[in-house]
């Protein structure tokens, strides 16, 4: 019998999905000859999806990520490393 409260955490799954999508988008941009970092930063700052190529469905994928959550995760990662 369990008397304690269990903690449910989706963060790990969400972070893994964000990383998978971001990696796919990065690879698609690189394949098309773009500077992936510049293009992703442009998208994050403007929310203009035209910064992201349609190649390999990258534009649709990046729009599945909440920009605020992604930026929060990026800043946290940067400061922790």
From TrEMBL:
It holds the Pfam family IreB. InterPro entries: IreB (IPR009309). Belongs to the UPF0297 family. This is IreB family regulatory phosphoprotein. It comes from Candidatus Butyricicoccus avistercoris. The lineage of its organism: Bacteria, Bacillati, Bacillota, Clostridia, Eubacteriales.
